[in-house]
Write a structure and sequence with these properties.
This protein is of the alpha/beta class. The protein has a single domain, classed as Rossmann fold (3-Layer(aba) Sandwich). The protein has nine helices and eleven strands. The strands form two sheets. A six-stranded mixed sheet has the order 7-8-9-3-10-11, sandwiched between helices. A five-stranded antiparallel sheet has the order 2-1-4-5-6. Strand 10 and strand 11 form a beta hairpin. It is globular and about 50 Å long.
């Protein structure tokens, strides 16, 4: 496990509430992540883990609460008609340039080569020249061990290779926060280790990462904090040792026993 950092929060979510119709998926969730920390979110299916993660880059917009992330302050308030106010396109654009996500499904563009996938956002979003974007993309492909695949198309890659391309694509935005939504759940078991190896290296670099995962041993190894979400609420949170060995919440203990 990494040593605890004392940096100021890179992520500070306060009293987030998210509803889908009558269903309240997140119930007054508050979470703080210091710069350079790795925080793993665990819990059973339907507990709100992915929804919480998607709120971090506004793929889902909370109905209530406040979020400070990568120096962007967002207050989720409503007008008289109940519509969320206080957000504009420029702020959303800035936030998503600083906070990138790696999804369960790789979401690569099939018509682009591996390198094309990695450099598309730096070209279109960051406005880099093609020469700079290619140099950047080649560097991140080397980081994930895929330099030799740069001119291939996603259809010719294994699932583990596609996910590593997705990680390189996220890194090419040079974000301040990386979000991982169960990055190994769509992989065959023998391909999981290659993706976890890349994430392990990123954690060792001191990157700020928030990760939803079902890989308990990996979460225990790389995380500064582990958060157990149950029915839209944080039922347990602490260091890996505290959560995995000394959890006070009965539901957390039951969950960990079931996945051991």
């Amino acid at each position: 496990m990494n040593t605890t950092t004392t940096s100021a929060p890179m992520i500070d979510a306060r009293h987030l509430v998210k509803r889908f119709g009558e269903l309240e998926v997140l119930k007054d969730v508050s979470l703080s992540v210091a710069e350079g920390q790795v925080v793993s979110i665990i819990g059973s299916s339907g507990s709100g883990k992915s929804t919480l993660l998607r709120c971090m880059n506004l793929l889902e917009r909370p109905d209530r609460g406040e979020l400070t992330i990568a120096d962007e302050d967002i207050h989720f308030t409503h007008d008289a008609k109940g519509n969320i106010t206080g957000l504009d396109r420029r702020q959303i654009h800035r936030l998503r340039a600083k906070v990138t996500m790696v999804f369960q499904q790789f979401n690569l563009w099939p018509h682009l080569t591996v390198l094309g996938n990695v450099i598309e956002a730096p070209l279109r979003v960051r406005g880099l020249s093609r020469r700079k974007a290619v140099k950047l993309g080649e560097g991140f492909l080397a980081k994930v061990g895929l330099s030799d695949k740069r001119d291939q198309y996603p259809a010719y890659l294994s699932g583990g290779q596609q996910q590593r391309v997705a990680i390189a694509r996220a890194l090419a935005m040079e974000p301040r926060v990386l979000l991982f939504d169960e990055p190994t759940s769509a992989l065959d078991p023998e391909l999981v280790s290659e993706v976890l190896g890349v994430i392990r290296d990123l954690a060792a670099e001191g990157r700020t990462m928030l990760m939803v995962t079902h890989e308990m041993s990996f979460a225990r190894e790389v995380s500064h904090q582990v958060v157990f979400l149950h029915e839209g609420e944080i039922a347990e949170a602490g260091t890996p040792q505290q959560v995995f060995e000394q959890a006070s919440n009965e539901r957390c203990r039951q969950f960990l026993s079931s996945v051991a």
